[in-house]
Design a protein that fits this description.
10 strands; 17% strand; two-stranded antiparallel ribbon; globular; alpha/beta
Amino acid sequence: KTLARRACFPFAMQRNATRRLGHLRSMVDPGASGLAQGLRGLSLQKKKARVLCLHGYENSGPILKKQLQMGGWIKEFGDLCDFVFVSAPFTSVPPVTPIVQEFFPDDPKRQWFERIEHLESGGVRYVGLDKGFAEVSRALREDGPFDGVLGFSQGAGMSLYTIAKQQRGELLPAGIPSKLKFAVIIAGFRPRDLENRALFEGVELDTPTCHIWGEHDVLKYKSEECTRSCRDPLVLRHGSGHKVPKVDTFEANRLRAFIREACLL
């Protein structure tokens, strides 16, 4: 037994010395271990792009959220984007479009302006559009800051209005002087309100835009038209109609790369 204890003695000395060395290191820099763990934790946290989401006609923030969920957007881009949903200021007058009522019977139905007024001059006026702008301004100010905007249908038109106004120095919240970094335009169109037509006449929008539309959308010509107002637009198509598409029906990897490049993520 004595011989066995003597044989183990060098190993015991080495073990005790290692413990003392570790104790001395903690005395010299007791926070080193915690600091290293904190830095590793920070490196694992990925910055996400915050995206303001503007719904379509007779839709609402809750409906657009469901549309993105049904289409797989939240799952596909959840690691890259935080989607923030707001609702327009005007309640849609019943009866609403049957397909909207069928899929979303209990959700609020809203719109970004009250109605379209056809003028004798041949143009149109979006009655109440100023209140739509006010709600977007409120969201940018109170719910931001945002990196980008995503809009579907009427909300896509509002998204184009937003980046066009920001290019002129408008809709920029106090303390957040920088413009949005990108816009995702789904089933979009160039708005035609007569009082705001100068926003698009002879102007090229320099905010990066990605335009998504369906090959069977009867209004796709309007989506094609609005790309002419944008600088180097990214165009993605799917095989359906006027809808928020499922992510497996268009090149979602290209949209991901577009957002990453715009936000330097």
